[in-house]
Amino acid sequence: MAKAVRELQQAASKTVCSAEWSEEEGLLWFRGKIYVPQNANLRRRVVSLCHDTKVAGHPGCWKTLELVSKDYWWLQMSRYIGQYISTCDLYLRIKPTVTNFIRPYLHQFSQSQWLRKALEKTFRSVLVTSRGNQ
Prior knowledge:
Strand content: 5-15%
Largest sheet: 4 strands, mixed
Number of helices: 6
Number of domains: 1
Number of strands: 4
Radius of gyration: 16 Å
Strand order of the largest sheet: 1-2-3-4
CATH architecture: Orthogonal Bundle
Helix content: 55-70%
Structural class: alpha+beta
CATH topology: Endonuclease III, domain 1
Oligomer: single chain
Distance between the termini: 12 Å
Shape: globular
C-alpha cells in the first residue's frame, strides 16, 4: 500500500484530497472504491474477471468499465479498459453474436455478487503475491 501512496504522490495530477482516501483491512480506498495500484498483472486480472468470464459474456468497453468501476478505481482506468477490449480476439470476432445471444438472459444472473467476491479474492491474492516478491 505504501508503494501505491508514493505512486499517487508522484503522479502528474496533484488533485488528490486526503478526505477522499482511506485505508481499511490493508486496502487503499478512493471515494468508496478499492484503489488498484500500478500493477499490470493485477489490473489485467480485475478487467478479465469483468470481461472474459462466461457470466460477464465479453461485454463491450462501456459495460466492462461499468462493472469494474462499481468497486475499483485507478488513474486512466477507462483508457486501460478500452485498450484491453481492443485486443480481445474473441470479442472482436463474435461481438454481434454474443451481444444478441446473451442480452435477453442477463437479467437472470445476479452477477454483481459473485463477481464482486471473485474480484476481491483475486485482488487480495495478487496483492499478497506481489508483496512477497518485493
